[in-house]
Automatic annotation (TrEMBL):
It is found in: Membrane. This is Leptin receptor overlapping transcript-like 1. GO terms for biological process: late endosome to vacuole transport via multivesicular body sorting pathway; negative regulation of growth hormone receptor signaling pathway. It is a multi-pass membrane protein. It holds the Pfam family Vps55. It comes from the Eukaryota. The chain crosses the membrane at residues 7-25, 31-51, 63-83, 89-115. Negatively regulates growth hormone (GH) receptor cell surface expression in liver. May play a role in liver resistance to GH during periods of reduced nutrient availability. PANTHER family: LEPTIN RECEPTOR OVERLAPPING TRANSCRIPT-LIKE 1, LEPTIN RECEPTOR-RELATED. It comes from Poecilia mexicana.
Amino acid sequence: MLTDLSFGGAIGLMFLMLGCALPVYDKYWPLFLLFFYILSPIPYCISRRVVDDTDSASNACKELAIFLTTGIVISAFGLPIIFARAEVIAWGACALVLTGNVVIFGTILGFFLVFGSNDDFSWQQW
């Protein structure tokens, strides 16, 4: 499973790099999305450390973390579209970057689905 996640991350970054580095596009503005890739899991990781998961009811810290993560992910999809509308990047580069976004965020989601439970195979023990 871990090799599938690493392969997904590599494919997503390949699409991002293709959207930047192909001679037809040759603009590196979409690399700002790397900040969104790094920032997206941070609110949820912090809330997992702060909140006790024994309570089955929803709490404000976890809801805020999901809200912030959703805002980061939507911003990551909106930025290339804004760049393309402002003619900073080409629409083909926008399509490649959005494809990379889907793959990368799917990989991040897959990581938290596989390693997010509180058993012996959890990422929190690292």
